[in-house]
Specification:
By secondary structure, the protein is α/β, with parallel strands linked by helices. The chain has 7 helices and 13 strands. The strands form 3 sheets. It has a 7-stranded mixed β-sheet with strand order 1-2-3-4-5-6-7. A 4-stranded mixed β-sheet has the order 8-9-10-13, covered by helices on one side.
Length: 237
């Protein structure tokens, strides 16, 4: 796992072989956005300590959606440190193991990528302490707010910190090679609508579930990318 500073002393990224998670700091109080795969807890703990922080100060783990590379270590970390696990109401039953993970509608070029993603071990059933809805405040980051962004999964969310100009997009948007609509969507048209909604928030920093964060010209690049991908959908859909 690689540790990447996104905003010094405030925001860090944990990069795994597949996917990534983020650590937001409000002083000593810590919030995780996603939790890597099921074996990620020791690496996350070590990275937090390397920053001179204490894993015991993880107060909440916000899951952007129900997939194995985002949920994996959440319960282990939450049980160890008493953190609250937050996810959208529509993905919560999947995260708890009460419903199956929804199958994506794959484009031909996505199929080999999807097979590679299945090499990540399945996440264990994981409790959800708080079922969030669109617009809910999350209690960190001077007003972090849930932005429901369905299409990747029904209960996918982004997390917007308007005071800091930071947006965590989950897998609705990807930054691998170029900024683009995320892959493996259950409903591509809804995902494009969500992409446009997120782009309209005009963040100064955009953090993706896969790919490098945007810290320069984020608002312009997100908007241009959403317009481009929407145009492609209209032309080829």
């Amino acid at each position: 796992m690689d540790l990447v500073d996104v905003i010094p002393d405030r925001l860090h990224m944990f990069r795994f072989p597949i996917g990534q998670a983020y650590l937001w700091r409000d002083g000593d109080e810590l919030t995780l956005i996603d939790a890597g795969n099921k074996d990620a807890a020791p690496d996350i703990e070590e990275a937090i300590r390397s920053l001179g922080l204490l894993p015991e100060n993880i107060r909440r783990i916000v899951l952007t959606h129900c997939h194995r590379d985002h949920v994996g270590a959440a319960q282990e970390l939450a049980d160890r440190y008493g953190a609250e696990i937050v996810a959208h109401r529509l993905d919560a039953p999947v995260i708890r193991g009460e419903q199956p993970v929804p199958e994506p509608v794959l484009l031909d070029w996505e199929r080999p990528l999807y097979a590679h993603g299945l090499t990540v071990p399945p996440a264990p059933p994981t409790r959800v302490d708080r079922e969030a809805e669109d617009g809910d405040l999350l209690g960190f980051g001077d007003g972090a707010r849930v932005v429901h962004s369905p299409g990747h999964t029904d209960g996918s969310i982004a997390v917007h910190l308007p005071h800091h100009g930071v947006l965590f997009t989950g897998d609705c948007v990807a930054g691998v090679g170029q900024v683009m609509l995320g892959v493996f969507n259950t409903d591509r048209e809804r995902a494009l609508e969500s992409f446009r909604r997120l782009a309209a928030l005009a963040p100064s920093t955009a953090c993706f579930g896969h790919g490098e964060p945007l810290t320069d010209d984020a608002a312009y690049i997100l908007r241009a990318s959403a317009d481009r991908d929407s145009g492609l959908q209209i032309e080829h859909g």
